[in-house]
Amino acid sequence: MSPDLDVAVVGAGMAGLTAASELAAAGLEVRVFESDRQVGGRMAAFRHGGYTVDTGAEQISPHGYRATWQLLERLGVSAGEVPVIGRPLAVWRDGRARPGAAEPRALLTGAGLSRRARLDLARFQVWAARRRRRFDTDRPERGPLADLTVAEFARRYHPDLHDYLFQPVSGAFFGWDTARSSAAVMVGLLLAVGDAADWRTYRDGMDTPARLLAERLDVRTGRRVREVVADGDGARLVVGDDTVTARAVLLCVPAPVARRLHANPAPVEARYLDACTFTPALKVSCLLDRPIAPPGESAPYLVLTPHVEEDVLSAIIVDHRKHPGRAPAGKGLLSLMPRAATTADLIDAPDREIVGRLTAAVERYVPGFGSANRENFVHRFRCGLPEATPEALRRRPAFTARELSPVDYAGDWVSLRPASEGAVRSGALAASRVLSRLRATRRSGLGVPL
Fold first, then answer.
1. β partners of residue 287
2. Could you tell me if 294 and 327 lie in one domain?
3. How far is residue 288's CA from residue 291's CA, in Å, rounded to a whole number?
4. pLDDT tens digits for 191-235?
5. Is the distance from CB of 379 to CB of 283 less than 8 angstroms?
6. Cα separation values, 209 from 57, 73, 86, 355, 399, Å
7. Gene3D superfamilies under this entry (predicted)?
8. What is the DSSP secondary-structure string of 223-291?
C-alpha cells in the first residue's frame, strides 16, 4: 500500500514551514500538522482591537540572519516591510533606564556598568573580536568556551558584566539561568547579530514570514500529532484519532516534544534529545489607553531589569516604540517578561495570577501604569527556548553525524541557536536530508517519485 504523503511535517513554526516550502518546491506532496489554531510557533502574533502583539520573538538583525533574509527575498518581503526599530535597549540601574545595552556606545553611556566595569567591557570586546572567526553559530561546540557556562565565563571580568550585561541579556532574550547555559552560544550570538541599534522588526507582526509561507502550503491547524513511529522505509503518525502514513516525517517541534512524540528514535538521537532541555517562556501584553513608558531621555523600546535589581521581571518591551503599528493611534502597548525563576513558578498558573504578579511589578518602572492599563493577555510557551547547556554541546556532534532515517528533525535546538535564524537554517537542512534520503531510495529501485 502506498503512503498517504511524501512528507508529513509536524509543527508550523519557522523551521517546519521552511522545510515544507523547500520540499514542496521539489515537487513532493507535503502536509504540515499544527496543534495550535495559528501558524508561527514562537514567532506568532496576536491581534486584538487594533493592537498587534508579538507573542514570542521580538526582532531580527541585518547581521547573522543570512538565511532569513534570503527567505524574505523569495517571499517578496521588501526591506521596508522590516524596518529598523531605531530605539535603544536600556538596562535599569539605580532608579533609571541606562541606554546602550548590546551596543558599542555602552563604553560611553555606561549602559548600567560602573566605570571600572567599562574597562573590562572593552577587554571583553577585544578578546571576542580577535576570536570572532572561531565562533560558529552553526557548530557552537567547535568554538571557544564550549565547556563553560555564562556565569563561569563572566568570572573573568568585573561582576557588573555578569549582573548588568550577560545576565539580563541572556535572561530576557533566551530565558536562561546563566549558571546552566553555554557561554559559547551566547557570545557567538552576540557577535553574529551585531549592534542592537541596527535591529529590526516586521512591520505587520513577527509572524509575517510564517503567514506568507503557510499561504503556499497545505497546513492543517488544530491537528495534534500524538505519536510518530519509524516503520521500515517510511513512518506513520497518529493525528487525533487518525493514522497517516508518509515516506518521511519531520519533527519540527522543540526537542522535549520531539522526544515525547517519537516512539522509536535511534539511540544517538535519543541522547541528544534528552540533553536539549528548554526553558519555559511567559509574556503578558498590556493594552494601554495612552502611550506611557519607563522614563528616560533616550526613549528605549526595551528595558532590561537585571536580577540584582528586580525579583519578578526580566524585561519591559515598549511595543508602541518598537513600531507604531503595534498599537492604535494615541494608545500604548507594553509586553512584560518575567525572570526565569518567576516563569518556572507561574507557567501553569491561572492567567489572573500571572497578570497580577507581573503588572504589580511594573508599577515601579512605568509611572501611571495602573490607570492606563485596560486589558491583559497571557502568552505562554512551556518549551520557550533551548537552554543550550554545555552537556548538549558535548552530545551534538554525534547527533549531527546521525544516519538518514524516515523520521528527522528541525528547530533552533538542532544547532543550539535560539533564534528564528536557527529555525530557518535547520528547516532548510532538514529538507535537504529528506531529499537526499528519498533520492537514494529511488536509486535503490523502490520507485519513490521526486
1. 333, 375
2. yes
3. 7
4. 999 888 899 999 999 999 999 999 999 999 999 999 999 999 999
5. yes
6. 13, 10, 21, 30, 29
7. FAD/NAD(P)-binding domain
8. --EEEEEEETTEEEEEETTEEEEEEEEEE-S-HHHHHHHBSS--HHHHHHHHH--EEEEEEEEEEESS-
**Per-residue pLDDT tens for 233-282?**
999 999 999 999 999 999 999 999 999 999 999 999 999 999 999 999 99
Instruction: State the Cα–Cα distance between residues 257 and 275, nearest whole angstrom.
Output: 13
Please check whether residue 422 lies inside any domain of the structure: yes
Tell me the three cell numbers of residue 56.
Answer: 514570542
Domain identity same for 188 and 307: yes
pLDDT at 447: 46
Return the C-alpha cell found at 416: 543550539
Q: Where are the alpha helices (DSSP H) in 131-174?
A: 150-154, 159-161, 167-174
414 lies in a domain? yes
Give phi and psi for 54, each to the nearest 5. Answer: -80, 110
Beta bridge partners of 262: 228
pLDDT for 26: 97
Grid coordinates given for 383: 518549551
pTM of the model: 0.95
If asked whether residues 361 and 233 sit together in one domain, one would say: no
CA 241 to chain centre: 31
Q: Give the CATH number for residue 347.
A: 3.90.660.10
- Cβ neighbours around 289 below 10 Å, total: 13
Find the domain containing 289 and state its range: 86-198+278-386
The total of structural domains in the chain comes to 2
* 316 and 268 assigned to the same domain: no
Distance between CA atoms of 407 and 251, rounded to whole angstroms?
Answer: 7
d(C-alpha 230, C-alpha 405), whole Å: 8
Residues 409 and 367 in one domain: no
Within-domain flag for 269: yes
* 14 three-state secondary structure: helix
**Pair 212, 262 in one domain:** yes
- Domain termination site, one of 348, 363, 386: 386
Higher pLDDT, residue 152 or 110: 152
Gap between the Cα atoms of 302 and 100, Å rounded = 11
